Task: inverse folding
């Protein structure tokens, strides 16, 4: 698969997630491009009229690490989810990691704290920044569509 621009990669991920949600009986609406915190609104009205806010993050082939920012530590709710999409290539279904925003906030805060207190390669102290990362090392969130409830 050819290397895609960051913008096209993100758009592809949003459409893949919207399609997967539709296959699972959700009404999925992709938001306008100027919304930086919610990419998709999804609802399954026969399930207690619940509406979910979904932020999609997409990585290209062989990259299963997603870069985030500090905002994820403080922006969460029971109805907000992150779906991390791992594109594989043409004619291959992507991997989907479905993470409740509450879980992500805790996880990112802890991993960043652990990184800060761990010495760098030459024993130097890490310098704090707004950059955060997500990687599902154990596959705990891989294909966890059941968490959307």
Result:
């Amino acid at each position: 698969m050819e290397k895609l621009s960051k913008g096209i990669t993100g758009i592809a991920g949003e459409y893949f997630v919207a399609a997967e949600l539709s296959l699972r009986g959700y009404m999925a609406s992709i938001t306008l491009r100027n919304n930086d915190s919610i990419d998709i609104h999804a609802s399954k009205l026969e399930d207690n009229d619940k509406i979910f806010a979904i932020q999609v993050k997409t990585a290209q082939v062989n990259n299963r690490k997603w870069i985030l920012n500090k905002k994820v530590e403080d922006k969460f709710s029971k109805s907000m989810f992150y779906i991390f999409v791992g594109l594989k290539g043409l004619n291959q279904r992507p991997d989907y990691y479905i993470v409740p925003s509450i879980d992500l906030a805790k996880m990112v805060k802890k991993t960043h704290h652990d990184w800060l207190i761990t010495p760098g390669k030459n024993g130097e102290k890490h310098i704090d920044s707004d950059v955060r990362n997500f990687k599902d090392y154990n596959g705990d969130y891989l294909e966890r569509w059941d968490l959307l409830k």
Q: What stands out?
A: The helical segments are 6-23, 101-117. The first helix runs from residue 6 to 23. The chain is about 25% helix and 25% strand.
